[in-house]
Specification:
This protein is an alpha+beta fold. The protein has two domains: 88 residues, Histone H3 K4-specific methyltransferase SET7/9 N-terminal domain (Single Sheet); 103 residues, no CATH class. The chain has an eight-stranded antiparallel sheet with strand order 1-2-3-4-5-6-7-8. A hairpin with a 5-residue loop joins strand 4 and strand 5. The longest helix is centred in the N-terminal third of the chain and has 47 residues.
Length: 252
Amino acid sequence: MYQNCVIFIKIHLFNQTLKLTKTIFVKQIILILFFVISVKSMYAQEADCKVLLDSLKGTYTGECKNGKANGTGKAVGTSTYDGEFKNGLPEGKGKYTWGNGDYYYGGWKKGVKEGKGQFHRFENGVETMIAGYWKKDIYRGEYENPFIIQNSTTDIGNVRITKLSNTDRYISVSVSGLLSNSGFGSRTIMTSFFVTRGSYISKSSTTMTNKDITIFQGVIFPFRGTFYFGNSILEIEIFEDGGWDVVVPINK
């Protein structure tokens, strides 16, 4: 009887072990099938995920939406782009590398450079870098805005600031609309000024019938100055080198 009990226990343990083994095996099979299906789904998605720039058509790995690259991904064609996409085009932050090794890292919008970025060029083993801001794939300069009107009193109208030259270094400040409504009264001229950034070499002034012009020559940019026209005050800052014309209308 003792031997029969031992045999029964062994058979019972064997059956339990067999059941456990089958359960583990089935779970492993399910996990393997799930992994295979997921991988196939991922590659099927990537294969159907389009990148619209011709230079990036080739292989794509990354996020996809409605059959187009969307989100974070990497596209490799004759050039390579690694970064953010939207509707099949680079948009957001990303690095674009040309076939010769030159690359741009920065902002993108609808497949072209937009916003702040850096362009790195390699020539004869020497690397050069341009940093600044791009607008619709065109480099605008080191600063997003070439000038800023920092402050003005309420009697100053719409100040017009225009860049007239890329090679000269001057700022011409003219005051327009200087006479009272009756046509009589004292002219408004630049009575004083204060430079808080940059410098200049010389200054000259010319007074005409209805205009006072002050020209600062040999300006070192960035240049920030506060100009006083009697009780009227204008403070501007100009970042880019060049010849600038500033027209200040004062409402009297």
